[in-house]
Amino acid sequence: MDKAGRDTIRFLLGHEPRALAGADPTQTVLEYLRGTEGLRGTKEGCAEGDCGACTVVLGTEGPDGVAYKAVNACILFVPALDGKQLITVEHLRGSDGSLHPVQRTMVDLHGSQCGFCTPGFVMSLFALYHAHDCTDGTLDRAEIDRALAGNLCRCTGYRPIIAAAAQACAGPAADAFSVAQGSVLARLAAMRAPEMLTLEFDGRRFYAPTTVDQLADLFTRYPKAVILAGGTDVGLWVTKQHRSLDVVISLEAVAGLSNVEQTDTHLRIGAGASYEAALDVLGAAYPDMGALIRRIGARQVRNRGTIGGNVANGSPIGDTMPALIALGALVVLRQGGEQRSLALEDLYLDYRRTAMQPGEFVERIDVPLPRPGVRFAAYKVSKRPEQDISAVCAGFRLELEDSRVRDIRIGLGGVAATPLRAVSVEAVLKGNAWSEATVRAGMAEMDRAIAPISDMRSTAAYRSVIARNLLHKFFLETTPHAARTRLEVPA
Questions:
Q1: Are 312 and 354 in contact (CB under 8 A)?
Q2: Lower Cβ count inside 10 Å, N or C end of the chain?
Q3: What pLDDT, in 10s, does the model give residues 152-167?
Q4: Are 399 and 328 a contacting pair, CB within 8 Å?
Q5: pLDDT, position 151
Q6: Number of neighbouring beta carbons within 10 Å of residue 128
């Protein structure tokens, strides 16, 4: 094992310190809680981050105190706890045995029946209790729905759970955790260490570099290592595919890599920035990007999953890439001390094959800021509104001049072996009047531009029809008398 760094994971379990030396770096937090700590309130349902039965809360240093984020313990690896506070349903009970307000309200309003899912719901409500901004004593139903979207229940029909959320979380949060925030922040700060976390277990290695230079050096030395960001995909390699990961390099502690910054021309999204961290900034610039990101898994997934991971993964059904391609995003790659930029569509060569060289990784994504007069829309078509993989995803960016198409960019997902830019469709549209006839010609070209397949999510024929119709939908929304083509869903 490399001698540099430290080999102990340090965190708070509730309010008790833990120091784990010699830990299995791909053991899940769920396994650790139930097997090592004997805390069995956290349940395993799906083991893939969908059902929410395993929901726990991570406390980290935030701008206004401790930031509490709901996450899925079933696909979270134990090293991700380093320097954080881990809170489970067992920790909510008061020192006198009293229930936390969200627990008490769930009991009073009969929000639990069989009880298997209840701890996960309680933890999502706990995160909501500490996160929402409520000044008038009410909580918006849309915010409740977003907080609970990642928790599934087969018994109650959700009505009493939603009622419990509205009642328990309607006022300013004040509980034992609020009182202890100062102490927790001081203890987390004391745990912070400049050294790289370096673990070895059963011949497998795990590194958590603290700088981009360290990351670049490690990936040069171990070009076949798994780069771990949020783990919402890699976690399933372990829980579902039972893969053994020989070398893992985590982005968790890399300074600056989780930043979302704005320059005069671009939004810069670090490869380690979570969906939730990027949501507000991207959504403010492009409302449809915000709407799209809200449909990428539930909040537990968005609190961990990253846009950089989605881009680097290169899945043809990754949701962010079609929209980012349409926006003209650039991906900034790093290899050793060298950096280069590519148009995002040029990153993808074939199914799960990218233009990245050995030892090269995604450092950030640069998204151009909106310009006056440019229209953008993103669409996701799936069997469920939330927490579902797309059948087709599309992004469109349009610039008109005297009612003619000065420029258009079209990004598509789910219709080929890679996320793609529909260049031939764009060529049919450019320079022509933005009219029904022009768009119909573009729709006809769409069949030649894409090569969908049939699978469990959709048929090739359906995907072809949807891709054509999404172009027409975009046209209907961007005519002088724009048609209403969408359901009004709260932001």
A1: yes
A2: C
A3: 998 888 999 999 999 9
A4: no
A5: 96
A6: 23
Which amino acid would we find at residue 491? A
Establish how many alpha carbons lie within 13 A of residue 489's alpha carbon, considering only the half-sphere containing its beta carbon. Answer: 14
Neighbour-count burial for 18-51, b at 16+ CB within 10 Å, e otherwise: bebeebbbbbbbbbbbbeebebebbbbbbbebbb
Q: Which residues of 218-234 are buried (b: 16+ CB within 10 A; e: fewer)?
A: bbeebeebbbbbbbbbb
Q: Is-above-0.85 flag for pTM? A: yes
Task: Say what angle helices 118-131 and 141-148 make with each other, to 10 degrees.
Answer: 130
Question: Across the strands, what pairs with 270?
Answer: 364
Please provide the DSSP assignment of 382-423 as one string: -SSSSS---SEEEEEEEEEETTEEEEEEEEEESSSSS-EE-H
- What's at 465, amino acid-wise? V
Instruction: With CA atoms as reference, report the closest residue to 378 among 283, 303, 465.
Output: 283
- Helix (H/G/I), strand (E/B), else coil: 188: helix
**C-alpha–C-alpha distance, residues 211 and 200, integer Å:** 20
How far is the C-alpha of 219 from the C-alpha of 227, rounded, in Å? 8
Rounded-to-integer distance, Cα 30 and Cα 53, Å: 10
